[in-house]
Amino acid sequence: MNLEEVNRWTASRPTLADALGIEITAVAEGYVEGRMPVDGRTHQPMGLLHGGASVAFAETLGSIAAACRVDRTKQATVGLEINANHLKGVRTGWVRGRATPVHVGRSTQVWEIRITHEETGALVCISRITMAVIDLPTTPGKTA
What we know:
The chain is α+β, with helices and mostly antiparallel strands and 144 residues long. It has a single domain, classed as Roll (Thiol Ester Dehydrase, Chain A), CATH 3.10.129. Helix content is 21%, strand content 41%. It has a six-stranded antiparallel β-sheet with strand order 1-2-4-5-6-3. The chain is globular, with a radius of gyration of 16 Å. The two termini are 20 Å apart.
């Protein structure tokens, strides 16, 4: 999928990414990039970027990246595990994320997501997501 196709696909229904203001900005064979605002939607009570928002951002990028690597008419990708290390607090502006493949196999994919502060370039969070590749059910009497 290219950027236009991803944005059309993700805009087809309301999602958590919409609520958090996540935007997908680039899609290529080796990565997916996006950005997320640091504001009231993504703050924790102390006015810092919420760690859960960073994880949701990482999972969004990794999930889209994984889906781009399969034939979505025959397979889907679903999250198995995600982890994150929160390295630096951010109060305002935007964070940028980039998902890159660590392993793209037949039944699993592993993606690394690096989240940086847009203005300073400081590494804010590093995350890794493992995705399962599953076959979609076939309709009886229909061939793929």
